[in-house]
Amino acid sequence: MKKTAFLKRCCFFCAFVFFSSSLAGSLLACKAKSPVIKAIDPKIGEMGDIISIMGEHFGKEQDASYITIAGQEPTSSSYLEWTDTLIRVRLPEFGRTGLISVYKGDQKSNAVLFSNRSKIPEQAQYALASVGPRIDMIKPNSASIGGLISIQGGGFGAMREDRSVRFSWIAENSLLNTENRGETVIEPFDMGLGYELWTSDEIRVRVPDGTVSGAVEIHTAQGNSAPVFFTVEDKPGTKAFRDKRSWIVAYSANILVHDSSTPNTLYLWLPQPAYSSSQPNIELLSRDKEPFVENYRGTTLFQIKDVAAQSNISINVSYVVDVYAVETVVAPQSIRTQNVSLPASYTQSDSLIPSHDPAITARVAEIAGRERNPYIKAQRIYEWIIANIAIQNDPLNNGALDVLEQKQADSYSASLLFCALSRSAGVPAIPVAGVLIDRNRVAHVHYWAEFWIDGFGWVPLDLALGARTAPEFFSLQDDAETWYFGNLDNQRISFSRGQNRLSQMDPRGRLAAHKPDYALQDFWEEAVGGITSYSSLWSDIAIMGMYTQ
After folding, report:
1. For residue 42, how far is the Cα from the chain centroid?
2. Could you tell me which residues come within 8 angstroms of residue 159 by beta carbon, excluding any fewer than 6 positions away?
3. Per-chain mean pLDDT for the chain
4. Using the 8-state DSSP alphabet, how is residue 64 labeled?
């Protein structure tokens, strides 16, 4: 994260608010029978080649329908065949690396990346005395999402620290009906699914969720390596990121120490917005105290030493967070189990997610039956919860087992139950904590979930919104029950993905946990030494502004 001027990021705010509001209705248009791209062949080619686009709902005839490649439309003479499931078109000379989309009337398909072979960066030859990182080879030079690769070269640095591997990532801007010009980047962000080794001449890293075929480069303080092309192998579906919204958020922690004696120390863990493929850009706007640790497992750790009695302590932070709507199309029959070593925290049973409890295992046996496909199992669990559990807005703060007994849940306990049932069925799953933002820009604490599919990555879902349980003034999708399985809107900010397990700083420290809040972490405060009495007030998330692009 980096500091930036507040005015620099919000100068577009007023200009875009009216624009985005006037288009809100069109963004919620029904997507029934929208064209769907399932595959393209070839994925890498040259201009003049014939490309086949396979899918469904293209229309029996072309009529006024068309495709775009990197935002540009081929001439009518380029189309060779158009059926409801197949389009064949000769690639135009102006074509370049970018997204292919199909347009039918006012409906637009998902997008699939095509790479122009002539634009693929060639591996550079370096002199021995070159400064900065260099990539000699990537082994293997193609892998699926979650796959482990080895990057070999030099100048990487002996430790990772603030260095990173940057993969290609791309988003659409359907507000303007075009694709973003050029690719951007995504870095590994999942604990246990990121870096496995970092030395001066080799990096072993897993391909992060959201990566597309394109350039890979090493980023260090000495500069970036020359990019090397990397291919993401066939995925059992597509994941599209679109309609970016940039939210300006502020929140604080306020502490009043009543009685204390020295020496003493107070530690505060302030959650940070969570980096992910749908929330890839997070910038610190302001902070009125320097932290003890900048990023400690997704939090900013503050240390206050020798606090006097009757002291008031306030820590205020603000961020700009870019959030994309994410839409997935998965072909369950194409899912293949792969050798991806997932962290235990995504699969294990614990007090929060009791996936091994007999009540959970019995229930999932009824729901999933003999089904072996992980996507279909997750879908059945989602549908069972919505059909059988009353999900309400008012917080209940009950657990997964309570939900099975009481048949009532809030977004928190419904997400925990989904994760418990999914893990019991052998499907890795995590709860996600954050806020939903309504039309009045009021943030509401909210929980949703994600489950993992080998070769595809994380699939999002929102049980409460799928059950049409939403805060007042929140804009729901028309087809909420089906849409919120596999898709998410951009009206939310996540602060933790999975349970954030922290370690206390002193074994004698007294820990303070919170009821379910906008982040799911073990504790938020730790008092050490002579602090005998204090009270704390953590503010709600305040939305200070929003703009679109």
Report:
1. 28
2. 198
3. 88
4. T
